[in-house]
Amino acid sequence: MRSSAWWCCTSAEAPRDAVLAAASPECCKKHGLASQAGFALLSVLWFTFAVAGYRAVRQGRHDDRREWMVRVFALTLAGVTLRILIPLLTVLLLPLLEPVYGGDEDRYFLEIYQAIAWLCWVPNLIAAEWFLRRYRTTRSSRWTSSRS
Q: Which stretches within 95-121 are classed as H helix?
C-alpha cells in the first residue's frame, strides 16, 4: 500500500499549484475572478476530500473512505466535463454572439468560461452526493431487512 500513499503525497502538489495560479493577478485579468474562484475552490475541495479519504483508510474506516473517494472521483471528472461543456456551450450559445455581445468573441467566450468554471464540477459533486445518499439508503435497508 505504499504506492497509494506515495500517489496521495505527490498529487497534493497539483491542487496547491492550481490555487497559487488562481490567486495570481494576471490570471484574474485574463479569465475573470469568477472562474478563478471556481477553479480554486475545486482544487481546495479535491485536496480536502483526498486527505479525508486517506485518513479514513488509515484509521480503518473503509466505508467512509469509499464515500470520500467517490467525491474525489466526481471532482476529478471536472476536467472531462470542462472539455465537453466548452464546445457544447460555445455552439449552443452562438446565436447570442451578435445580439447580446455585439460580435465581441472575447467577451462571449469569457462569460462562457466563467460559467463553465463552476458547471464543470458542481453538478458532478451534486450527482456524487445523490449517489451516496441513494447508496446509503439502499445499503441500510438491505441491512435491516436481512436482520428481520
A: 97-101, 105-119
- Measured CA to CA, the distance from residue 44 to residue 146 in angstroms comes to 40
pLDDT per residue as tens digits for the range 67-92: 999 999 999 999 999 999 999 999 99
So what's the pLDDT on residue 9? 38
How many CA atoms lie less than 13 Å away from 147 in the CB half-sphere?
A: 6
Going by the DSSP 8-state scheme, the letter that residue 24 receives in this structure is S
> Distance (Å, rounded) from C-alpha 29 to C-alpha 139?
48
DSSP 8-state secondary structure symbol assigned to residue 103: T
Would you kindly state where each structural domain of the chain is located, as residue ranges? 2-138
Q: How many other β-carbons are positioned within 10 Å of the β-carbon of residue 35?
A: 22
